[in-house]
Amino acid sequence: MMGTTHQTDTLIVGGGVIGCAIAYELAKAGVDVIVLEKETLGSQSTRAGAGMLGAQVEMTAPGPMYELGVKSRALFPKLREELLDISGIDMELHTPGIFRIAVDEDDRAALLERQRWQTECGQRAVWFEDEDLRGEMGDLVSPRYGALYLPDDHQVRNPQLLLALAASAKRLGVRIFEHTPMMGFLQEHGAVAGVKTADGVIRADRVIVAAGAWSGLLARQLGLDLPVFPVKGQSFLLDSYSPPTPFTIYTHGCYILPKKNGQVYVGATEEQQAGFDRRPNLRSLASLSTQAVELLPSLGDLPFSTPLAGLRPGSRDGMPYLGSVPGIDGLYVASGHFRNGVLLSAITGLVMAELLTGKETSVDLEAFSLKRAHVFG
Predict the structure, then answer these.
(1) Is the predicted pLDDT of residue 252 greater than 90, yes or no?
(2) pTM (2 decimals)?
(3) Residues 10 and 147 in one domain
């Protein structure tokens, strides 16, 4: 790409699970797409994430975010079949469900209230007292206050989902440029007309910023105050030929996900003050290890595999920004998904493709509009 100029209908800046999901859906609609990634696809928060499709376990109250998560979760079985058919790569959808373990009486009361409103919203949420939980899982867990079982909250393996999306998008004609950092925006007559890179120029009718925790930094180049910021998360993988439970176990500050490849994912911290430092550290991993073994004692005998660390794209209200940037033609944002990038990838890809092709969106995007952010600095 040395000194060359490329032309496309839509340029997506960011090659994580959000950018690749949008590229895939746009390519299905016949749109010419380029994905620009400064490192390798999925090398940031996608690589380090747990892969939970926690539409119920992650949401503490009904509202637009809960509805977005439920709609997205429902898309994954069909999406899995589509991607498997096109690419031959399985995202490893794992469906036994999630147990959210209560840690004290206040947590128990909050989870029982969550069971009430989620059931009223038409979702399955089943309460297990301690003896019921032990009957289901043996003595693997050490509960004291009961647990909420969410049978329809599932999980995938992040690297496989990313590979399936990227390979399918490429099969449909998407061009992917890795190791190509963006150097600045092209602007003509007040509109964004593409980007500049060290290797040349990419002209585009529309540019979507889907750069995760780095989205706010890129927006500053246009004088925009997009409040997306890094929240560091650390986790680790354990090796196991046969994980001790098929269920995802989740509680305050710790969750345990058995993967179909035999590994067990243990996560994850939330560190607001780490900035853009992605290195794992001993204190956080030691704290996670202690919590995990207390929750599921048999994990203590499993061999340690890999530490992981990534930067989640946080937002002030915990909800993503999806849509066009007010006042700048040709510029769109899909970022700020925080802990729910994998869960929301399916619906984000769908609604952004609908928006850019002039269709009515499957979800009302008003609650996720950039108007709430007051982006102009």
Answers:
(1) no
(2) 0.96
(3) no
